[in-house]
């Protein structure tokens, strides 16, 4: 039996424009996903996915065949979902192309995945799966991501490290640098779940439709990212994330989340990742938990509970 684990992720700066070469500050989270694999004598793949409570949210059995490689034997069984089954088949087909030997056997596998965060949180259900599968199959996780879900790859970088990173794409290839981001004011930073799952692929598609020339914006975002990493005070940090919001709002032709939902908040707020859902970051001198709970947002995590 083998066991693999990958960290979840949050993109603090550079959302969207990281796809076009901007430098982004990304943080691995205390939450992630595990994958346990056991060899079995039958030529099949028994897949079970558990949520953070240990409850089955997906399961299926796939037949292993050298001609068809993988075919879901029952994609609509009780806990199954046809779209998820198709996505797993896509991932495993991609794995087979990268490492033809891994599924080319008379033996099969029993695979169990388990999240330690609610999968609607958007912390990397897909990226942690990709990285775990890549570890198991001795394939490159960035290549596997590119041929399946797509994206910049910062989430894969977070899955593989326990440190804050500066992430950028140079000519399509990831460049990763560990950075010393450990703000002295982290006790005044909070992550709030907006109770709305945002599809990253939809967010990226919208961004690509709206963006124009980004030379100046990328330069500004790079400067803000550098200043945030070196930031020493909460006041400066708040000013920087507000400036970041203004730039991304202009690029994507969207309104910042603070003006949309929290105009009276006494502090600064920044969207994380694709705008419109998942988590936001709030910086406040006062404890903001009562403020957000009064407005119906009950998942509010202090920085130390979320970030490794």
TrEMBL record:
Protein name per Swiss-Prot or TrEMBL: GYDIA family GHMP kinase
One annotated GO molecular function: kinase activity
Signal peptide start and end residues: none
Coiled coil: none
InterPro entries the UniProt entry points to: GHMP_GYDIA-like, Ribosomal_Su5_D2-typ_SF, Ribsml_uS5_D2-typ_fold_subgr
Gene3D superfamilies: 3.30.230.10
UniProt keyword Transcription regulation, yes or no: no
SUPFAM superfamilies per record: Ribosomal protein S5 domain 2-like (SSF54211)
Keywords: Kinase, Transferase
């Amino acid at each position: 039996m083998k066991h693999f684990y990958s960290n979840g992720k949050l993109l603090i700066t550079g959302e969207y424009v990281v796809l076009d070469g901007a430098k982004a500050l990304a943080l691995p989270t205390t939450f992630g996903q595990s994958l346990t694999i056991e060899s079995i004598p039958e030529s099949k793949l028994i897949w079970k996915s558990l949520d953070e409570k240990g409850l089955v949210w997906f399961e299926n059995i796939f037949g292993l065949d050298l001609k068809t490689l993988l075919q879901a034997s029952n994609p609509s069984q009780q806990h199954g979902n046809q779209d998820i089954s198709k996505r797993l088949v896509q991932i495993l087909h991609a794995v087979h192309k990268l490492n033809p030997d891994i599924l080319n056997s008379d033996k099969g596998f029993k695979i169990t995945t388990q999240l330690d965060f609610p999968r609607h949180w958007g912390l990397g259900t897909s990226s942690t799966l990709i990285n775990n599968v890549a570890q198991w199959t001795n394939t490159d996780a960035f290549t596997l991501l590119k041929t399946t879900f797509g994206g910049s790859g910062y989430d894969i970088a977070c899955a593989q490290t326990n440190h804050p990173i500066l992430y950028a794409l140079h000519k399509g290839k990831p460049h990763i640098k560990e950075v010393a981001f450990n703000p002295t004011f982290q006790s005044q930073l909070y992550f709030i779940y907006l109770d709305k799952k945002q599809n990253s692929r939809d967010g990226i598609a919208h961004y690509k439709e709206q963006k124009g020339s980004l030379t100046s914006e990328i330069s500004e975002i790079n400067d803000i990212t550098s200043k945030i990493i070196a930031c020493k005070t909460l006041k400066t940090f708040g000013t920087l994330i507000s400036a970041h919001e203004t730039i991304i709002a202009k690029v994507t032709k969207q309104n910042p989340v603070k003006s949309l939902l929290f105009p009276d908040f006494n502090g600064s707020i920044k969207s994380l990742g694709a705008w419109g859902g998942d988590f936001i970051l709030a910086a406040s001198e006062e404890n903001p938990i009562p403020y957000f709970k009064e407005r119906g947002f009950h998942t509010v995590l202090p920085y130390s509970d979320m970030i490794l």
